[in-house]
């Protein structure tokens, strides 16, 4: 799995992360050697993307256990890290997994065991994402498109958002490697502009793409310029309702209106069977400053002052009825086929 870039690097038993708040303008690595630094990196989106914040949370818990490893310290560190971002279930999932692995151990053995568990989470994430890419490639091959294939994506669900390969972008990378004639519409994804990260990734990989304003998606679909939409996910409820970066829902509505497939690509750890449907998914409300200030290479420009009210929900929920397929490492859950889910699909409902 070494043939993928990664936003994190382990050296000298500490973490080094690519600071995503400085991309795409500057490539700058940050050293993370305390749990507080890991929590800060997640909360400020120096690291972002559901699988990646899960991995950084896991390492953060291991770093906390180097300082104190009794039950109270474990619980406090876990809560502190879990509180950083609420929507992506991968964070809580990874923290629970590490805590479960170390709880039976003596405090003196916990930090090393937690570190190894975090490394295992990363290995499994890369393998899962590669498998997601292979399943997505099958869907791409099955598109009725003749000539160049035009996909659309939203936000950044590439290797920057994971520990390698990406989720939504994994299939795009494999399609490119397979020599498919493919072009990607990349929506800029205001207010944090993660679309610029996607463009940065795709440019590095030589994938033809075009960045669009978020509001251009419907017109492009209307003009027949989009063959399918593929996005990542932060939490998928038991009925298939999908929380992803705000703006995903509007793309799903437009895709349905124009009879285009809308695929959600995510590892199994993003499925939260404790959420019956999308109404149970917590939606992160971020600072209004992200809307008030437009960031660029030279810092930020304030476009709206504090006297104006701003709302900034960071995610939205796309109802399962608008999702054509959920692609996980276990295969494709075809939510449009109207068949009964298999045992591996558990409670994810087919439509
Ligand atoms: C591969 S999951 C990517 C996922 O992460 C996102 O959010 P954020 O940038 O706020 O961490 C977004 O919903 C992406 O689809």
TrEMBL record:
<feature type="binding site">
    <location>
        <begin position="244"/>
        <end position="245"/>
    </location>
    <ligand>
        <name>substrate</name>
    </ligand>
</feature>
<keyword id="KW-0028">Amino-acid biosynthesis</keyword>
<keyword id="KW-0413">Isomerase</keyword>
<feature type="site" description="Transition state stabilizer">
    <location>
        <position position="155"/>
    </location>
</feature>
<dbReference type="GO" id="GO:0046523">
    <property type="term" value="F:S-methyl-5-thioribose-1-phosphate isomerase activity"/>
</dbReference>
<dbReference type="GO" id="GO:0019509">
    <property type="term" value="P:L-methionine salvage from methylthioadenosine"/>
</dbReference>
<feature type="binding site">
    <location>
        <position position="85"/>
    </location>
    <ligand>
        <name>substrate</name>
    </ligand>
</feature>
<feature type="binding site">
    <location>
        <position position="194"/>
    </location>
    <ligand>
        <name>substrate</name>
    </ligand>
</feature>
<dbReference type="InterPro" id="IPR027363">
    <property type="entry name" value="M1Pi_N"/>
</dbReference>
<comment type="pathway">
    <text>Amino-acid biosynthesis; L-methionine biosynthesis via salvage pathway; L-methionine from S-methyl-5-thio-alpha-D-ribose 1-phosphate: step 1/6.</text>
</comment>
<dbReference type="InterPro" id="IPR042529">
    <property type="entry name" value="IF_2B-like_C"/>
</dbReference>
<keyword id="KW-0486">Methionine biosynthesis</keyword>
<dbReference type="InterPro" id="IPR005251">
    <property type="entry name" value="IF-M1Pi"/>
</dbReference>
<dbReference type="InterPro" id="IPR037171">
    <property type="entry name" value="NagB/RpiA_transferase-like"/>
</dbReference>
<comment type="similarity">
    <text>Belongs to the EIF-2B alpha/beta/delta subunits family. MtnA subfamily.</text>
</comment>
<dbReference type="InterPro" id="IPR000649">
    <property type="entry name" value="IF-2B-related"/>
</dbReference>
<protein>
    <recommendedName>
        <fullName>Methylthioribose-1-phosphate isomerase</fullName>
        <ecNumber>5.3.1.23</ecNumber>
    </recommendedName>
</protein>
<feature type="active site" description="Proton donor">
    <location>
        <position position="234"/>
    </location>
</feature>
<dbReference type="InterPro" id="IPR011559">
    <property type="entry name" value="Initiation_fac_2B_a/b/d"/>
</dbReference>
<dbReference type="Pfam" id="PF01008">
    <property type="entry name" value="IF-2B"/>
</dbReference>
<comment type="function">
    <text>Catalyzes the interconversion of methylthioribose-1-phosphate (MTR-1-P) into methylthioribulose-1-phosphate (MTRu-1-P). Also catalyzes the interconversion of 5-deoxyribose 1-phosphate and 5-deoxyribulose 1-phosphate. Part of a bifunctional DHAP-shunt salvage pathway for SAM by-products.</text>
</comment>
<feature type="binding site">
    <location>
        <begin position="48"/>
        <end position="50"/>
    </location>
    <ligand>
        <name>substrate</name>
    </ligand>
</feature>
């Amino acid at each position: 799995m070494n043939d993928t870039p990664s936003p994190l690097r382990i050296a000298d038993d500490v973490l080094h992360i690519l600071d995503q708040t400085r991309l795409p303008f500057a490539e700058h690595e940050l050293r993370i050697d305390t749990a507080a630094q890991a929590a800060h990196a997640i909360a400020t989106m120096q690291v972002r993307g559901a699988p990646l914040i899960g991995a950084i949370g896991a390492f953060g818990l291991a770093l906390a256990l180097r300082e104190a490893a009794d039950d109270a310290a474990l619980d406090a560190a876990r809560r502190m890290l879990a509180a950083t971002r609420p929507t992506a279930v991968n964070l809580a999932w990874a923290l629970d997994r590490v805590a479960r692995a170390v709880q039976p151990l003596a405090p003196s053995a916990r930090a090393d065991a937690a570190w190894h568990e975090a490394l295992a989470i990363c290995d499994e994430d890369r393998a899962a994402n590669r498998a997601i890419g292979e399943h997505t490639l099958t869907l791409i091959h099955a598109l009725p498109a003749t000539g160049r294939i035009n996909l659309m994506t939203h936000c950044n669900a590439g290797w920057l958002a994971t520990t390698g390969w990406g989720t939504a972008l994994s299939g795009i990378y494999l399609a490119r490697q397979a020599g498919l004639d493919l072009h990607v519409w990349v929506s800029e994804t205001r207010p944090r502009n993660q679309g610029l990260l996607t463009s940065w990734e795709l440019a590095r990989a030589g994938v033809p793409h075009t960045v669009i304003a978020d509001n251009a998606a419907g017109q492009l679909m209307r003009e027949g310029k989009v063959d399918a939409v593929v996005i990542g996910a932060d939490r998928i409820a038991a009925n298939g309702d999908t929380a992803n970066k705000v703006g995903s829902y509007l793309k799903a509505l437009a895709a349905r209106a124009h009879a285009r497939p809308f695929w959600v690509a995510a590892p199994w750890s993003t499925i939260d069977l404790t959420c019956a449907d999308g109404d149970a998914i917590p939606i992160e409300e971020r600072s209004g400053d992200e809307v008030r200030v437009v960031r660029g290479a030279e810092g930020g420009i304030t476009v709206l002052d504090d006297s104006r009210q701003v709302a900034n929900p960071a995610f939205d929920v796309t109802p399962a009825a608008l999702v054509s397929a959920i692609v996980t490492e276990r295969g494709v859950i075809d939510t449009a086929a109207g068949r009964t889910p298999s045992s591996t699909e558990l409670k994810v409902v087919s439509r």
